[in-house]
Amino acid sequence: MSTENELFSAVDALLEQVAQDDLPVPAERKRLREAAGLSQAQIAKALNARREAVGNWETGRTEPRPPKRAAYARLLEGLAARFPAPAPAPVVPEAFTGPAPVPTPAAEAPAPPAPAAAARPAPAAKPAASSRRPGAKKAVVKKTTASAAADDPRFENGPLAVIDCEDGQVSAYCVGGLVLDVPTKSIPALVDWTLAEAKLGQARLHRNGRDADPILVLTASALERYGLPVALSEEERRAGRLAAGHKVVKQIERAGLQMTQRGFGPWARLYRDPEGSRRRCVQLCILSWNALDTREWGKKDRPELLLTMHPADLARYLGLYAARVMTPRGSTATTGLELMTALRPPTRAEKDPATGEFKRAFNDDALTQVYPVVECEVPDEHPILKDKFARHHMRTPAEMLMEESYDWCRPLTDEECANQFLVAIDINMSFAAAANGLTVGLNGPTHLTGNPKFDPSLPGSWLVDLSHVDLSRVRINGCTVDGDRLPSPFTPTGERPTGPAWYATPTVAYAVELGFDVAPIEAYVRTQTGRYLDPWYKRLRDAYVETMADMGVTTDLQGQEFLEVMARRKQVDPTMALLETAIKATAKGAIGKLRQRSRGQVPYYEPYPALERVNWRPDIRAAVLASQRTGLHRKLMKTAAAADLYPTSIGTDAIVYPSPGPSPLDVLPHTPEGKPVPGGFRLGVSPGMVKHQGTQTVLWAEQQFEERGGVFNLSNLIKTADPTAGEGE
């Protein structure tokens, strides 16, 4: 006969089995803990769990598993007995003022509401990926036009998952709060599970494009579970991959999986041969191997915010980025470049009327092949420049297209020193805004000689002398400006050109706009043109505006209200603050990648990998930077003509003005009706508008100049308390 202890043990085991449905709803779990005056850390210590796990149980992101589940249920049951939920007050319509009716015996009274502690969540539908975690459910996600995959049953679990391991159980944290149990013990099995069951990926952004491969972000605990090092050795870090003899690499080879030439590195791509037109590829993003650079994806002064982010929060962050921009492909710059191709695919399927079969055809509005390059447009290490110049020769503006952003400053005048403050404003998404509506070349260069006539409709590079342009002779609305207190629009340093130099089409067109004659000596132009970057800009603009709106900064905010909401936006939602940084880095980095330089992979003048891309187009980068710089200068001129207001320094897209007060409202001019000066700088959240970067005193600036021994560009030193302010883009 069984003893009493044995019977109790059997009963406890039985209770543990049925305890799966004994947990109250997440909100009630939190209420019970707070009613008892307990912290999450205290409960985590008692249950031998992580504090983050307890927090996730209280929000419903995850559910406890046995044996912790039974112990947690027992704790909540005891707390519910001590702190019962208050009975809900009867709801009486406001319009009814008489006594409550007394039900007749024949009337069937409605059943009283069950106490919150006994309430159970409705069982979630079992996803196709077979979630084995009790209570795992997908949260309701607001659908937007940017999340096409949300309506695609092939990718119903989102574009990516964060793979984490806790207590020996591997879990996949997906977007929308979904958590899947992962029944795999090796990297090859994980890849096959993803391809067969996980339903991860993202639908194409253009009908002629291709679907995005699923991304698996591996945390440190997942690396240990699958036999991978948490950190690369110094030799592996330099090589950018695991050694070929590593056991996981051998597992991959034995399983018949293939890898790209990059091998198993921070962004490892593993694939099997396609099934018809269906790709079978999975990309691994290894967090602790610096796959997500904290300078782009996080906060450069606080890298731990990204590296220690809970898997559910990381899935939300990257999932939002994928929905609003695209599935990450590496660095933000690489992703931004891939976004151009995803929105303007080079090819399409076209039916041959003769045979009825589909064949590949090129799209007229896209970049479709690698064209010959132009000497003046390429960087110094390009193979075409081999044996062209003496060693260590510094090319002049007449030999090299030097379209860059502003880095300019000047001394303050005595009158300006009478102001107390220097106020720095920053242009939102300036490079993306400059790309909006910009006509660029889509084919190869055509060389024009013999003093060709300037044609602003032909994008390219023009050798022309603009040294005769005198800003003091320009009249704007009947007013002239002080040219000595403004930078030249034709050089990044703001110095007036001294002779012929190469310029992109937007720069020469601006000289014509100012009213000056231009006489090109020669040019390299593109005859097939288009607004290639328009969809790219619109995608990033919408992503940025939507993210800012999530932090309370909407497009209808103006004046002081806008400044106040902007100042506190990053405290509203830290995840959205990171997303803002990533979107801006995507826009800025992608433009830079159009003329990616050699990173030391090969010797000088030897071909390097970036040159093989159809979107390695230094002429397009130059056009965007020229458009950004001249667009900024146009606003400087309008502001100077309207209010006799001149900047003291400019760094990329940060402009510093002397001001009697500490706010941009104290310095930016307005019309008598209280509206911003037409054509000048305007406060707002949209790309191309400006925000407050920071304020310092004139005395502070003089101290900086004294310490440095002269005037220097301090535009990016004038920042608010936020260390990420003033990074441009």
Verbal overview:
The radius of gyration is 31 Å and the shape is globular. Helix content is 32%, strand content 14%. It is built from 21 helices and 20 strands. Residues 17-21, 89-150 and 721-729 have low confidence and may be disordered. The relative contact order is 0.09. It starts with a helix and ends in a 21-residue tail after the last helix. A hairpin with a 7-residue loop joins strand 5 (258-259) and strand 6 (267-275). It is of the alpha+beta class and 729 residues long. The protein has a seven-stranded mixed beta sheet with strand order 3-2-1-4-7-6-5. Strands 10-18-19-11-20 form a five-stranded antiparallel beta sheet. Strands 13-16-14-15 form a four-stranded antiparallel beta sheet.
